[in-house]
Each structure stands twice: as structure tokens, then as C-alpha cells.
Amino acid sequence: MTKLDMRNTMDFFGMLTAYALIKRLEAGESMLILANDRAFLPDLRRVHPDCSFQLVPPHELKEGDDYLFQVRKI
User: Fold this and answer.
1) Cis-peptide into 49, omega within 30 deg
2) Which residue, 59, 61, 60, 69, is CA-closest to 35?
3) Does 42 score more than 90 pLDDT?
4) Residue 65 pLDDT exceeds 90
5) Can you give the pLDDT at residue 12?
């Protein structure tokens, strides 16, 4: 499984990298993204409505925390 570390790289090129990798997933495939910007996840949901996004492990997000989430193409 691919793991992408997006901590402190939430600029335009970082977002494009994440979008491109998700777009290449086949149905049923997944990848992990490590991030620390809470606005990143809603942006991905808007651009990739054909995917599910789940925190690993599920927990409450706090400001400044790093978090890992799994993206799965439906």
C-alpha cells in the first residue's frame, strides 16, 4: 500500500501530488496519507467523491496534530 507523507507540504504542488496518486487508484485499492492540516481532508473529499476517507485509527482531530487517513477508491 502506498503511503504519502503530506505533513508541512500543503502547498499547491503537494495537493497535486495527492490528487494524482488518488486518481491512479483502481476500484477497491487504497493508500495512506499522513497530514497535519485539517483543511486537507475536506478538499480531497470534494475533488474525489468516488473515494472513502477514514482516519486510522479513528479519533478526534485536535489542532496541530498529525493524522493518518486511508483513502479507498469505491
Assistant:
1) no
2) 69
3) no
4) no
5) 80
Q: Which three cell numbers stand for residue 29?
A: 485499492
- Strand-by-strand arrangement of the 2-5 sheet: 2-5, 30-35, 67-73, 51-56
Identity of the residue numbered 4: L
Predicted pLDDT of residue 3: 93
* C-alpha separations of 71 from 20, 27, 52 in Å: 13, 11, 6
Residue 22 gets which letter from DSSP? Answer: H
Predicted model pTM: 0.85
